[in-house]
Write a structure and sequence with these properties.
This protein is mostly helical. Helices cover 92% and strands 0% of the residues. It has helices at residues 2-24, 27-47. The longest helix has 23 residues, at 2-24. The protein is flat, with a radius of gyration of 15 Å.
Length: 48
Amino acid sequence: MAAAHRIGNLARQTIRGKLKELISFPPLRARLSKEKVIIEFAKNTSLA
């Protein structure tokens, strides 16, 4: 149980870190990365 709790805390910290990174991104770069994610998602769904 302790290990699972530790993993949960670590995940929460990394998610928070990623959100901070995204927020601090210049808008253009954030938009480009979002578009990349959407393109990847579209590729994955079309293959499935």
